[in-house]
Amino acid sequence: xxxxxxxxxxxxxxxxxxxxxxxxxxxxxxxxxxxxxxxxxxxxxxxxxxxxxxxxxxxxxxxxxxxxxxxxxxxxxxxxxxxxxxxxxxxxxxxxxxxxxxxxxxxxxxxxxxxxxxxxxxxxxxxxxxxxxxxxxxxxxxxxxxxxxxxxxxxxxxxxxxxxxxxxxxxxxxxxxxxxxxxxxxxxxxxxxxxxxxxxxxxxxxxxxxxxxxxxxxxxxxxxxxxxxxxxxxxxxxxxxxxxxxxxxxxxxxxxxxxxxxxxxxxxxxxxxxxxxxxxxxxxxxxxxxxxxxxxxxxxxxxxxxxxxxxxxxxxxxxxxxxxxxxxxxxxxxxxx
Length: 337
Known about the structure:
Layout lengths: L4 H10 L2 H11 L24 E5 L2 E5 L6 E3 L4 H7 L6 E4 L22 E4 L5 H6 L4 E3 L7 H8 L18 H11 L3 H21 L7 E8 L2 E5 L4 H8 L3 E2 L1 H4 L7 E4 L11 E5 L4 H5 L8 H4 L3 E4 L2 H9 L4 H17 L1
Parallel strand pairs: 3-4, 3-6, 4-5, 7-9, 7-11, 11-12
Antiparallel strand pairs: 1-2, 7-8, 8-10
């Protein structure tokens, strides 16, 4: 089957959410100016130690005083900002799924504020400039230095940590980079510790997960993309005790996923196989090829069709993780029972 490169990229990136989101946006009227007015300044609690300096893959960013106008461009950076009590004036909505720019797990943190929602994943620099930021967060992205340099012309800009693969910034690094830029390192550490504890508690409550192999894949355009170590979805599963399938790792793809054709669908077999099938869940449940792999025959295939759950799982942020634990872990437990 011919594959549309754009759809393929988005399908893998978002677990196919971007395709499904197009319809949702249409239903919402697709406000091209964004979901909010952008008129509200950043809301931030008092405190913070300044000047703050943050080292990242492209150098060191200095923040001289508490920022008042923060624009969130990195994937799920808004979650980290909101967890620290900072409401961005602009949010790049990577999933194009929510009029307020963040998922349901983070929406109460907005407190009724309506940041300008920038339609992603590409960056509209002119629109960012109109928000007059004094800090831009760009911690989880494709690690494109040219983009970071362009943003630096607008305001001090964070990037991901040195050595991270594209879109591979961990929950810990994302939270700490942003907390340090806000002069609030201790609060960042507390958030990371809380997330680690929640994952450790989930792992301890489910000893049957430990050491089990897993494949997490997105279904799109007649094929699959299986995520590799370093991807946030795999990071989440590893925190629960799973090991990413060695068959997938041995493919050594250049990016954060390995393309799997239907002819090679048996590569998706593992102790647990998770497939994102947004908008196609019923089709996948009837797919004789997919359901012919051993894990499917043994009823250890999970097809996730809930867009909020898929996006929470994919986001892997300090706010989405509790949501994913609550919604997803029971499904895994049932599949392995």
